[in-house]
Amino acid sequence: MTSIAAATTTTVRPGKVRNRVLWGLQIFLGLFFIVASGMPKVLDMVPEENMAAMREAGIGSPWFMYFVGICEIAGGIGLLVRRLSGAAAVGLSVLTLLAAATNLFLTDMPAYAPFPLVLSGIFAWIAYERRDSILALRSLLTR
């Protein structure tokens, strides 16, 4: 009987640890995307050298920066909400993948591409781990 109790205890623990790691990562990345990434775009605080490179590529219009900033803030908030965390991770994965592609192919800043690519992979992992929240949201929206 003790071995059964020990076996169930050990099978539950890795899930708890993974859940805590995921929430820690989601909180950190959510706050990062709200404060350090989205807010500067919405408040026009993007460094001038980045804006110059974006303008040269033809994508440096103010409405585009506001749109991306709002998407980043919404994604950051979504990562912090249990029901929205999976969908927010999917959206941020696509957004960061597009940011990496922009840095690689449209602007002259290929050295900036690895960071969004790594973030895209992290968000894809979060979305995979939070797939139950995506399915619950889908079923809620299709009622």
Short description:
The protein is mainly α and 143 residues long. 83% of the residues lie in helices and 0% in strands.
* Share of helical residues: over 70%
Number of strands: 0
Q: How much of the residues is beta strand, in percent?
A: under 5%
Shape category? elongated
The first-to-last residue Cα distance is 45 Å
Judged by helices, strands and strand pairing, the structural class is mainly alpha
Total number of helical segments?
6
- Average pLDDT, all residues: 87
Report Rg.
19 Å
Note the run of SSEs as H and E: HHHHHH
Oligomeric state of the chains? single chain
Q: Could you list the spans in which at least 5 consecutive residues all have pLDDT below 50?
A: none
Q: Outline the biggest β-sheet.
A: none
Polypeptide structure, described:
By secondary structure, this protein is an all-alpha fold. Helices cover 83% and strands 0% of the residues. The termini are far apart. The model has no long low-confidence stretch (mean pLDDT 87).
Search tags:
143 residues; single chain; mainly alpha; 6 helices
Which SSEs are present, and which pair or pack?
Elements: H1 2-42, H2 48-57, H3 62-80, H4 85-106, H5 114-129, H6 131-141
